[in-house]
Fold:
Amino acid sequence: MQHKLCCMQETMNTVPGRTTEKAAGKTVEETALLDRVRKLVLGGDFPPGAPLSEVFLAQEFEVSRTPIREALKQLQHEGLVEIRPKVGTFVREPTRREIVELFQLKESFEGLAASLLARRGYVPELEILERNVAESERAAEDQDADGYARLVHEFHWTIIRGADNRKLAEHYERLMNQLAYHRLVVRTVEHPGRILASTGEHRAVLTMIQNKDPFGAESAMRNHVYASSKEALSDNRPRYGGSTN
Amino acid sequence: MQHKLCCMQETMNTVPGRTTEKAAGKTVEETALLDRVRKLVLGGDFPPGAPLSEVFLAQEFEVSRTPIREALKQLQHEGLVEIRPKVGTFVREPTRREIVELFQLKESFEGLAASLLARRGYVPELEILERNVAESERAAEDQDADGYARLVHEFHWTIIRGADNRKLAEHYERLMNQLAYHRLVVRTVEHPGRILASTGEHRAVLTMIQNKDPFGAESAMRNHVYASSKEALSDNRPRYGGSTN
DNA sequence: TTACAGTCTCTACCATGCAACAAACCATAG
DNA sequence: CTATGGTTTGTTGCATGGTAGAGACTGTAA
Structure:
């Protein structure tokens, strides 16, 4: 049950603040185009099942079909679209079941990350987390939902980065991309009561990490993710109310 | 810490017995080509860092550069090659650190799978596992290393499938693809002593699952994966002795 | 009305030409 | 000998035309 440990440097942020920064193995243009297409799909203008033909996207973004094709393959693989060979590409509707599955994975990933972080010696992430949780508590008091959501996002990513396991970060990023569709719809999953509980859970996780207690940290984090995903799944099933453009 | 639960149907097996079966969203030709290129890379004829030019592969496999390009993107993303934009594609050497990171993830994934499986009601996987472990014990007595390796492979995949979480299976498959390079080199990681211990650990995992004890199952599985990966990482650092062709 | 067969259209898939970039090479000057 | 600049070569990246497959449609017959 013990873990060896190992390094890591950069990870992209998830959708909300996704800056067009270069990903490894892709040119900047490729990344930019990918982001534009992803935004289009996530924007909600296309309902699930809507076709995304290569030619349409090509003239929409004023490039040839080839780079579009590559971007679509990437998105397929992120789970946002479905490619039916020889037929076409379609916006994919994540089923409720898939969301549940992804949340199970999220719990596992973040638990691992917390555990790995707690196992490390001194790391600058600890101070960042301390500040983050303090700010979260203030934001919760002030009922600042947007600020709170941003801080939560930062909290989780800081722990992932702090785990110092690049492969974990890669898988986590994939996961979050797949959840992004859902997250855009049920934007602020946390209602006031939940925010209070959530803040407490963040504090608990941080304390365990500060105590260098990997088991406690993992446990606390899993509890937190479980609670928060149960909340997210509670009643608000994914609804896609975008115009069909 | 409780888990909801959820289904799953087909997963491809990992490298050794990788049959050219159709993957979702790809034509059979695409999958076949991908497998051929993957085999070429994994075959060891190209040392890490060796260039894999599109034109070369294109005439090697008698197709155009376009499908080759797509296959390479897929392999990049499996971690087997590195694409340097505008420069070329190169066989990638997984660092020791990456292997460690991957094993950490493996532990987490399989722990989750065991836990989810233990949580389910009656499932046919249980009988398969029972037979599998029994056969493993016989193979261990008979010093049948090859048979044992095959059974171990089956054991782990059966649990992943039994977890009934398709997204988990997808991520696990990616992970195992990334580990495949390493696994080809240190083929049979288990020496006789380790095999004995390993068999016992399998039995322990199975018992916990039969007892419907998710925590115990997760714990036992993580212990097992940890022990087995420590063994794999012990001294045999990846060596690439293939001819340069 | 329904079932089925033939056709027809729309789509991805693949091939190939062209352009632009990166890096290796060589020559020249300090 | 070293450093620097220009040239040359090899590679990907993008555009576009042809092809073949999948699915929709229509008409016909039961």
The mean pLDDT of chain A is 84.
